[in-house]
Amino acid sequence: MLALKFANTAYFTLGYLEQMRDSVARVFPFWTPDIPLSYCVKAMYSFGLMETNLYSQAEKLAKEALSVMPSDAWSVHTLAHIYEMRGEVKNGLEFMRGTEDQWKTSDMLACHNYWHWALYFIEKGEYEAALTIYDDHVLPSLQNSGTMLDMVDNCSMLYRLQMEGVPVGQRWQKVLPITRKHSRDHTLIFNDAHILMSSLGGGDSKTTEELLTTLKEASEDPGENCQHLLARDVGLPLCQALVETENGNPDRALELLLPIRYRIVEIGGSNAQRDVFNQLLIHAALNCTSSANKNLARSLLMERDALKPNSPLTGRLIGKAKAIHLML
């Protein structure tokens, strides 16, 4: 079980989604219901199926795992993803409310499941409800644990709210003392990008410069470190795009993001987590001064609407595009 979990997590971290799924598929038939922890294997497999867009199969297995172990936070997590990716906000909210007592004490995933819950409210445009979850659960979890997953959840949530035009007050200042300690880690590009969100959001130019400088240095002498190799072609452009966005240069941010948009999966994380970068690209296109770049926003929004047709967030972005005469 431990070896399977390590392999599964490594594939996820590297953005190898099919390999993550198949690492469980090849042993799944041997984990019969009479074997202890077989529900965990079912939960792992359901997540891999979900990340490769096999939502119906994933939903069936996650629910089967929960029927055996209702407190399995990983299966709850998979279902939270499924409702998110399908744009089933009402179902997602009802599910999280109805199961909270079963997963709220999970050491690793409680904060992350609350993050998913808050995403539904951001999707609906109910920002105060999202901020309430943030203040009551997401931030306190980070302050208690200091774990990287909790850091990522905090940074991602605040950044998404800011893109929606929501004032977040002094919340970045409470996150920064924890994230800035990791500005030189460069363990994962995914983490670097989120740490950078916090330094930019909190106006900490010293940490921003330190992160970018040391990441560039790591990319110039990567050795066999796959993340440092990835930094040159994907990590640095992604991080620089965040900086350009903060500095009010959407055209430059778009120029940096567009060539790497289909490579961002390589930094790891889930489809839902990496959606923050899809939103970043769309906002950059919408805010561009170049008419050619502005027109790209229409194409990006049509792509997004085709994948997730019930999304209120996409609807708001389309409304913004219409306001600047990009869509009929």
Q: What gyration radius follows from the Cα positions, in whole Å?
A: 20 Å
Strand content: under 5%
Overall spatial form: globular
Poorly predicted runs? none
Helix content: over 70%
Gap between N and C termini: 53 Å
Number of strands: 0
Major β-sheet profile: none
From the helix content, strand content and strand pairing, which structural class follows? Answer: mainly alpha
- Alpha plus pi helix count: 17
What is the ordering of alpha helices and beta strands? Answer: HHHHHHHHHHHHHHHHH
Average of per-residue pLDDT values:
96
Overview of this protein structure:
This protein is 73% helix and 0% strand. It is mainly alpha-helical. It has 17 helices and no strands. Helix 1 (2-13) packs antiparallel against helix 2 and helix 10 packs across helix 11. The longest helix has 21 residues, at 226-246. It has helices spanning 2-13, 17-25, 38-51, 55-68, 73-86, 89-103, 110-124, 127-145, 148-163, 171-179, 189-201, 205-220, 226-246, 250-257, 271-287, 291-307, 312-323.
Give descriptors for this structure.
328 residues, mainly alpha, 17 helices, globular
Short description:
This protein is mainly α and 328 residues long.
